[in-house]
Amino acid sequence: MKVVIDAELCQGQGRCFSIAPSIFDFDDLGSGFVIGDGTLSPETMDLARLAQANCPEHAIFIEESP
Amino acid sequence: MTDKPPVLDFATDFDHTDPEWVSDPYTIWEDLRQRCPVAHTDRYGGAWFPATHAGVSAIAKDTVNFTSRDVIVHEGRPTEEDLPSPIGVAPPITSDPPFHKVARRLILPAFSPAVVNALEPQIRALCATLLDDIIFEGVVNASMDYARLIPPSVIRQMLGFPEEDTEMFIKAVHLITENVDRPQEERIELFEPVEAYFTRQIEDHQENPRDDLTTFLLNAEIGGEKLALEHVFGTMILILVAGIDTTWSAIGAALWHLARNPEDLARLVNEPELMPVAVEEFLRYYAPVTMARLVNADMEYLGCPMKEYDWILLGFPAANRDPTVFKDADKFIIDRAENRHVAFGLGIHRCVGSNLARMELQVALEEFIKRYPRFELANEDNVTWAQGQIRGPRNLPLRILR
User: Fold this and answer.
1) DSSP letter string over B283-345?
2) Domain map of chain B by residue range?
3) Which of B36, B143, B277, B310 could tie B295 with a disulfide, CB 3.0–4.6 Å?
4) Is the ipTM beyond the 0.90 threshold?
């Protein structure tokens, strides 16, 4: 499974990188992005889901890895 | 205010400055959600108020059918001349796409998490100094003597205005923000000293550029051209109005809550690591900011016959209490783990200063409870709440317990 941020939906609410700084970071404009390729381990899955559940813009998606 | 007729039914005649709405809007909003999710009033020249998360979200994200050219509901229907574009009165909050994106990208870096995080030690020191300055007589006015003084100092510093002007700056700001519902002529009059001060500051920064937001705006360019002076001025006004009594209200409301809920106060004192999660719940439960939009053209929307330039009162605080989105929405849960609150808005106009506001709220609370780990309301009847689109306690006497 991997986590992605839809950059069109992200408005820089700042919740993901506060909750899960090991998975998400922010750019100069304060928009969130996924660190690396976003592949989730069983250990990071819960944290990614928590960040997803706190995004007011519903911009975070957890998908099956191709 | 007092000369207005009382509201008989908030579904058909709402008024966000009515004393009942000011003292407890939450009961009104829950009632509206159950029987009439979009309220209407003929007051203010005609306005709509969606009480649900779905309604607020739809309008906040719809920049085609709604314009942001005026975001404060006031008496009278706006006319085309009242609504400058594309820059607007206070860009980017009063700008629509596509200009909005350009104006917003310009100032986002000044409020990025990296910049804001670097301010933390200064904000913490400021809070400690303010607490030192309080002449302690058993009761502390936590709104007037603490919360009120934090945001203007931070903003003054970011804009690069002289420290000795702090008091004057604070007074000028409150003159504007506390009088938004006065008639337009009076507002213009109140605004004159602020305009004169800003003009002097802009001139001073033109002569003596330095590392601050004012110089940044004066040097900023759009499409290879320096910003129009009205743009610089408007953005400074925005930062002033949006960055001050909003955060003041958030800090005050959180302290009001802690004064009335000793179990929550004790948890924050004993579990400081809980603070970031608690801050989000304070923001959800006591979201201070209600925005506004104008309808762009006659249309049927959310089942309502909306007319061009009808106001939309955009209640993010009401959305935050919608039980279809938040479990136990009417309960304050200090460790609420899943919290998709919309205190900073939704869509392209998300509060540019949200990172700063969060930081100020968190640091202000941490420093206050470090100094005063136990307190209660000194007199519930003496607590007053701001009226209008920003909600927070203005008078907040707290009795410090030993």
Assistant:
1) HHHT--B-EEEEE-SSEEETTEEE-TT-EEEE-HHHHTT-TTTSTTTTS--TT-S-----TT-
2) 10-400
3) B310
4) yes
Nearest CA among B64, B351, B61, B69 for reference residue B234: B69
Distance of alpha carbon B12 from alpha carbon B252, whole angstroms: 32
Report chain A's C-alpha Rg in angstroms. 11
- Region B281-293: what's the mean pLDDT? 97
Cα gap B244→B159, rounded to integer Å:
13
Peptide bond just before B86 cis, omega within 30 deg = yes
Packing angle, helices B354-371 and B275-285, rounded to 10: 110
Q: What is the CATH number of the domain that holds A14?
A: 3.30.70.20
What is the pLDDT confidence band of residue B364, given thresholds at 50, 70 and 90?
very high
Domain count along chain A: 1
Which tokens in the block code for residue B398? 């707290």
Residues of B in contact with A30 (CB under 8 A): 108, 111-113, 355
Q: Residue A22: which domain range?
A: 2-63
Contacts of residue B34, defined as CB under 8 A and 6 or more positions apart, other chains included, come to none
pLDDT, tens digit, 9 for 90 and up, residues B143-186: 999 999 999 999 999 999 998 988 887 877 777 767 766 777 78
Nearest CA in chain A to B105: A29
- Say whether B140 sits in a helix, a strand or coil: strand
Q: For B6, which DSSP code?
A: P
CB burial of residue B157 (10 Å; 0-12, 13-18, 19+) = middle
Count CB neighbours of B188 within 10 A: 11
Three-class secondary structure of residue A8 per DSSP: coil
The verdict on domain B10-400 having CATH code 1.20.120.1200 is no
Average pLDDT, chain B: 93
**Residue ranges in B47-183 assigned as alpha helix (H):** 53-61, 99-107, 113-133, 150-159, 166-177
Cβ <8 Å between A54 and B338 = yes
What residues in B contact A56, CB-CB < 8 Å? 340-342, 344, 346
